Amino acid sequence: AMARRLGASPLGAGLMVLIPTYTSRLSFAFLPSLFGHAVDMAFLLWLMARADVLGTRRGWLAGAAWVAACQLAYVSGVVNLSLLVGVLALLTGMAVGWRRGLGLLAMGLVGSVVSVALYYRDFLPMASDVAGRVMSHAGPGGAASRYPIQSWLAVSYGRTTDFFDHVYPVLAVVGMVALWRRGKAGLVLAAWVLTYFLLLLGRAKAPDIFLHGHETLLLTPLVCLASGEALAQLAGRGLWGRVGAGLALGFLAAQGLWLQ
Fold it and tell me: What is the pLDDT of residues 3-28, one digit of tens each?
């Protein structure tokens, strides 16, 4: 459904069966995060399809309900979706208008308030303790983080290649350029990618908060969609293009099965 909405090749949906990310999450029995991931993807699909109604009261309320549902579906959704909606609001304000951007930001805040009121209110003291420790670490002589502080570039490279190796990122970049030029849901796609790298920045510099964000899980469908689009475009370039796309797909299939 997301591929159809973006006008992308459905080959990306097939790559989701081969990519090792989901097997990795299943092997650790991360069933809540996988359920929450499915809710996140449904919300992103809704955003792509219903961006034009977010300016209406009904659309705004539906968006706030989606944000609350995503955050209640799994704990990491509180951070991931809050950040994604915040980035989308910023990009929307810059590209469309600040009234629309602030409306999106308010939508996310209302959804977050609902999720806290319904469930996370009992965790506020613990969250306050973690935030206080992180802030004290930010100052001179502050308390050390429980986890090592790392370079953002090193964390970004390590996490990306650990989960996607080296072929998927190259294909994904090519496919993202093609999807971007198509002009469909460009702001949502940009917010999706930027959220991934901001979560990695948090993982590197504030691991007490961002260490278990499942950022690679969040990005996996987009990597598959963009990679599938890149392979489809390569296959459309004559005989040798089809051969190259077939070889690349065969390699990804063999690699995925071996890593799984």
Answer: 888 888 999 988 988 888 887 777 77
